[in-house]
Amino acid sequence: MSSTAEQVDRLAAWESREVTLYRVLPYVGLAVGALLTAAAPAPTGLSLVPDPFLAVAVACWVAWFVNLHPDWVTRRGLMAVYYVGLLAFATALVLDSPWYGFFAWIGFLHSVMALHGRWRFVGVAATAVLLGTAQGGGLPSSPAHWLLWAVLVLFNVGVAGGVTWFGLVSDRQNTNRKRLVEELAETNRRLAETMRENEGLHAQLLTQAREAGVTDERQRMAREIHDTLAQGLTGIITQLEAAGQARDRRADWQRHVDRAITLARESLSEARRSVRAVRPEALESARLPDALAELAGRWSTMNEVRAEVSVTGDARPLHPEIEVTLLRAAQEALANVGRHAKASRVGLTLSYMEDVVTLDVRDDGAGFDPGDLPAPRRPDGGYGLTVMRQRVTRVGGELAVESEPGGGTAVSASVPALPGGAA
User: Fold this and answer.
1) Cα–Cα distance between 78 and 280 in angstroms, integer?
2) Per residue in 210-253, pLDDT tens?
3) 141 contacts 44 by C-beta, under 8 angstroms
4) How is the beta sheet containing 306-312 ordered, strand by strand?
5) Which SS3 state, helix, strand or coil, does residue 136 take?
6) Alpha-carbon Rg for the chain in angstroms
7) 145: number of CA atoms within 13 Å, CB side?
8) Which of 93, 99, 98, 154 is closest to 146 using CA atoms?
9) Phi and psi at residue 409, to the nearest 5°
10) How far apart (Å, rounded) are the C-alpha atoms in residues 386 and 399?
11) What percent of the chain is modeled with pLDDT above 70?
12) Are 281 and 228 in contact (CB under 8 A)?
């Protein structure tokens, strides 16, 4: 952007120098013509007014239109009047003394400033006639002089016309270049503003992403704590309470204590794996159907309720997040059955279909009214269904709960059948 600004500054500086030349050079030409006229007067002069008075009048004419009113340069009518008057004064001076040809050539320069379009060539031709007259020593007085005058005029017209033509082309190119530079500068300015806006937006997005990441991690840890520590501690408490009731029976007491110790170790291991965001241990060494069978077996042993697992369809490896979601859903559903259902039988069905995998957990327990679920985040089980629904929804699945008092409960989790390794 700095280079564009430098180009704009250079163009402005060049235009300023051109304006200075337009304003200063007429007086230089007048001074040179007056000095030479005074030093070597022309033998014949046709002016009716002494050249010093004409020179002062010309200086005032130029000063009024060019120096004192520079904004008039955009007014074509006034500039045309100025140029006609300039030629008239130049003609009178050249006829009085050919030395004022040094001033007459200003007509070439000011034709570009004062005239527009083809009128510039008219001004150049008129100035070339004046300059040829001055170069020939005044008005022709013989055929040979006329021939010399004609050659000088044609030469001046040709040279000045060519220079004017190239000047017009250059002026047009400069105008286009200036417009392009200004457009580029404006584009760079807008680009800089856009970049600043993007920087602010980027910072805002980073902040939102960081906050979203923190929220997501909190939700993940809440789910993992519920699925590992909370359920493990609930099982440990249940086993210890059972051990307390069986203190008079040594074998039963030892069995409940051993189960509590096993639950504590498993919960500790799962908690550590949750902190490291590692898959559950059951899925590290076994496929999902086997992990469900192992889970159901452990749960059946601890709760002394029969649990059966069946698989339909073509069992195949799924994306790790999908398998974790189904395993945690089964774990939560079984935990709810153990705490609330008082069931005598539980069935888990894992159905592999083309695009969907469904896990159904059914029990023949007491059931409940789904419209009267406990409030979430209370320790009576309401938070478990909330966590289960969050997990299933997070992977693009759906969770359905069907139950009625005395009619058992059915929990169905349907998730996309993303293959193993899919994003």
Assistant:
1) 93
2) 677 667 656 666 666 665 666 667 777 776 777 777 776 777 77
3) no
4) 306-312, 345-352, 356-363, 409-416, 398-403
5) coil
6) 51
7) 10
8) 154
9) -140, 145
10) 10
11) 77
12) no
CA nearest neighbour of 7 among 193, 169, 167, 188: 188
Q: In the predicted model, what is the mean pLDDT of the chain?
A: 78
Location of each CATH 3.30.565.10 domain in the chain: 286-423
Q: Are 188 and 4 in contact (CB under 8 A)?
A: yes
Q: What's the whole-number mean pLDDT along residues 145-173?
A: 76
Q: Give the Cα separation of 168 and 173 in Å (integer).
A: 9
Are residues 57 and 34 in contact, defined by beta-carbon separation less than 8 angstroms? no
- Beta-strand pair 409-416/356-363: antiparallel
Please state the φ and ψ torsions of residue 173, each to the nearest 5 degrees: -65, -40
- Residue 418 CA to residue 399 CA, distance in Å, equals 17
β 356-363/398-403 pair status:
unpaired
Which amino acid, 76? Answer: R
User: Measured in whole angstroms, how far is the alpha carbon of residue 202 from the centre of its chain?
Assistant: 9
* Structure token digits, residue 390: 């969050």
Q: What are the residues whose beta carbons fall under 8 Å from the beta carbon of 401, sequence distance 6 or more?
A: 370, 385, 409, 410, 411, 412
The predicted-structure confidence for 355-385, as pLDDT tens digits, reads as follows 999 999 999 988 888 776 554 444 344 457 8
SS3 352: strand
pLDDT at residue 381, as a whole number: 42
Print burial letters for 266-278: b (CB count within 10 Å at least 16), e (below 16): bbeebeebbeeee
The three state secondary structure string of 263-325 is HHHHHHHHHHHHHCCCCCHHHHCCCHHHHHHHHHHHHHHHHCCEEEEEEECCCCCECHHHHHH
CB atoms within 10 A of CB 214: 10
CA–CA separation, 88 and 93 (whole Å): 9
CATH architecture of 286-423: 2-Layer Sandwich (3.30)
- The pairing of strands 345-352 and 356-363 is antiparallel
- 287: which 2 tokens? 């496929």
Amino acid at the residue 247: R
Length of the chain: 423
The first and second tokens of residue 246, run together, are: 């069986």
- Sign of the C-alpha dihedral computed for residues 248, 254, 260 and 263 taken in this order: negative
* Of residues 353, 370, 351, 376, the one with CA closest to residue 410: 370
